[in-house]
Amino acid sequence: DTGVSQDPRHKITKRGQNVTFRCDPISEHNRLYWYRQTLGQGPEFLTYFQNEAQLEKSRLLSDRFSAERPKGSFSTLEIQRTEQGDSAMYLCASSLGTSGRYSYNEQFFGPGTRLTVL
Amino acid sequence: GENVEQHPSTLSVQEGDSAVIKCTYSDSASNYFPWYKQELGKGPQLIIDIRSNVGEKKDQRIAVTLNKTAKHFSLHITETQPEDSAVYFCAAITGANNLFFGTGTRLTVIP
Question: Which of B94, B99, B105, B106 to mutate to test the interface with A (most CBs of A within 10 A)?
Answer without folding.
Answer: B99
